[in-house]
Design brief:
alpha+beta, three-stranded antiparallel sheet, 6 helices, 12% strand
């Protein structure tokens, strides 16, 4: 996704969320999928921009083997690495939980869904891109329609 299109999706996302407690800022930097060390690099860059907290998701900057398809890093390895290094940087990490969408309760943590035996709806990034290219309907639980429209227009 080009930087211009990415910026447009952020603008649509900001309009959809419309929360005064959230400050949106575009960082012109692309992911390199280099694992926990890249997550730490993102943290340092944001520190240099004046941030005090860093939201870090599950498997941030993770990548898979092109041969086996196995993940190179554990799902929370980047979060752990960032948390270990946060004091030296003077930053606080805010780990993002692994959220899933369920038919019964909407968005919940994966652990909650598993414990209650809820029916989780899944759509991988690969499936999403295929559906996007094929003009198929993208479920609203997966992405805002306004963001999907920007991505479709750029394809």
């Amino acid at each position: 996704i080009s930087g211009e299109v990415r910026f447009q999706t952020y603008e649509r996302l900001a309009a959809e969320v419309n929360n005064p407690r959230i400050r949106w800022a575009y960082l012109p930097y692309s992911m390199h999928m280099a694992g926990p060390r890249e997550a730490l690099q993102h943290m340092i860059i944001r520190k240099n921009y004046g941030c005090t907290h860093f939201i870090i998701g599950r498997d941030m900057a993770g990548c898979k083997s092109s041969v086996s398809g196995d993940d190179f890093y554990g799902p929370y390895q980047a979060q752990d690495f960032a948390r270990e290094n946060a004091p030296e940087l003077g930053m606080e990490t805010v780990p993002s939980l692994n959220l899933v969408y369920t038919e019964e309760e909407g968005y919940v943590t994966a652990e909650h869904a598993e414990a209650r035996g809820l029916h989780v709806k899944k759509l991988s990034g690969t499936q999403f891109r295929q559906m996007l290219r094929g003009g198929e309907e993208i479920p609203e639980w997966f992405a805002f329609r306004s963001v999907v429209e920007v991505l479709r227009a750029a394809a």
